[in-house]
Amino acid sequence: MLTKTPCMLEFFIVLKTFLGKHLMVLMELSRIMISETSDHQIIVLKENGGERSFPIVIGLHEAWAIDRAVKEIPTPRPLTHDLLTNIIAQLSDGLEKIEISDLKNNTFYAKIVINQNGNTIEIDSRPSDAIALAMQRKAPIYVAKKILDEVCKWDHS
């Protein structure tokens, strides 16, 4: 029989805290709202197989890049996100995933995760740029559970 010692309890508290901070939830792009009369566009991410969703305000050029990628509209010459996708493809084993990993002062932070020679590399990014790349390569989008819990608070009254 396993007896609980203070050291074991402390370990499980640390483990639970670590997992709670680092647990990622698979998301999907559910909407792109583009208004050419506004500087602010909106994309909505929805929990894959779940009910939770939340908006992210992005710029017009990033919204167009995401929309083009989703609709698979080619361009005559590579635009900025096309160029980044090509560089990642040429210099690595490809885009593994993107993660929206933090939320500070109402600003989301993301990471582009690539593999290069068996090593995982995380590159700091704005979520809009990371999502544009993910849409081009059909890479998964993850959001930290702590962020999803914060931005999707349910009213259970």
How is this fold's topology laid out?
Blueprint: H1 6-22, E1 24-33, E2 41-47, E3 53-58, H2 60-71, H3 80-91, E4 94-104, E5 107-116, E6 119-125, H4 127-137, E7 141-144, H5 145-151
Parallel strand pairs: 4-7
Antiparallel strand pairs: 1-2, 1-7, 2-3, 4-5, 5-6
Helix pairs in contact: 2-4, 3-4
Detailed description of the structure:
By secondary structure, the protein is α+β, with helices and mostly antiparallel strands. It has one domain (23-151): Bifunctional nuclease domain (Roll). It is built from five helices and seven strands. A seven-stranded mixed β-sheet has the order 3-2-1-7-4-5-6. Strand 5 (107-116) and strand 6 (119-125) form a beta hairpin. The termini are far apart. The model has no long low-confidence stretch (mean pLDDT 87).
Key features of this structure:
157 residues; alpha+beta; Bifunctional nuclease domain; seven-stranded mixed β-sheet; 5 helices; globular
Shape: globular
CATH level-two architecture:
Roll
| Span between termini | 42 Å
> Mind telling me the C-alpha Rg?
18 Å
Strand order of the largest sheet: 3-2-1-7-4-5-6
Summarize the structure.
With 157 residues, the protein is an alpha+beta fold. 38% of the residues lie in helices and 35% in strands. The radius of gyration is 18 Å and the shape is globular.
